[in-house]
Amino acid sequence: MHLEDTIAAIATAIVPQQGSIGVVRLSGPQSLTIAKTLFEAPGSQTWESHRILYGHVRHPDTQVAIDEALLLLMLAPRSYTKEDVVEFQCHGGIMPVQQVLQLCLQQGARLAHPGEFSLRAFLNGRLDLTQAESISELVGAQSPQAAAIALAGLQGKLAQPIRDLRNTCLDILAEVEARIDFEDDLPPLDENLIRQQLQDLYQQLEAILDTAQRGELLRTGLKVAIVGQPNVGKSSLLNAWSRTDRAIVTDLPGTTRDVVESQLVVEGIPIQVLDTAGIRETADQVEQMGVERSRKAAQQADLVLLTVDAHQGWTEADQLIYDQVKDRPLILVINKIDLARADLVNYPPG
User: Fold this and answer.
1) Are 258 and 234 within 8 A, CB to CB?
2) 0.85 exceeded by the pTM?
3) Would the pLDDT of 23 be above 90?
4) Rounded distance, CA 133 to CA 147, Å?
């Protein structure tokens, strides 16, 4: 990668026949030159930093209008990458932004690599590593809580405590090394004070690390598999939890033949719920494939909801399924409790 290159890329998600705006972004020394070559701003509009111009993108050779657009200028160093940055804000869809991007490439820009705008921002001192990572997390956030944590990271609220800890470590190191080099010229080292400072540092590091697990949950979420025999109410549980008719529910065993997914957010944590086919021995080849997928889903899940029919009680078939998933984090769900007979319910040990 060469920082003297001017890079270009489509900066917004492009969906055919959807979206009102598509953005083509350039960053680098030739950004302004390319913009002036392609963009016609009528009247006496001023080409200056942090100003939006109205006009048309035209082919430089034929002068045919490609799109009616807005042009945003952000000149160095007051830009995301601390380089000259230009954004063509075009109509949404595929063709306008693709055509504008191709014209930018024909004028000397090169196609940006994935993440290269953020990489340039980091290399130019605009962002540190925690902030660059927070941008990716903010874009991919699946809940308001995850977005809030990512935004806090982008604003430096994670990096600042780490900087403070580093400065404290350097101060302690300087105190110790000074006694080594100038022992006769300085008062004795207060060892108790140094120990207390190190203990405080350790506790602060522990506090920061304690937030990592919840942060990871907010970023990646949980995968929860609902497993059990056919017709124990797995699909009904999924529908009730998601408040939709995501899964087909009938009184016939084996209705669910494949894994049905639903996306939920619980206490700010994204959850992918998998309604699996009922696990049983069967001669039906299609159902066999569904049962095998159910077993794989259970083994790959972060949490298993083993669902049991309270009316039937704990059966040998339930025990066989339990033996297959008991090594996973597991919650036993007793369904159809209104039909239960107390003499039939015999839950597994533990």
Assistant:
1) no
2) no
3) yes
4) 13
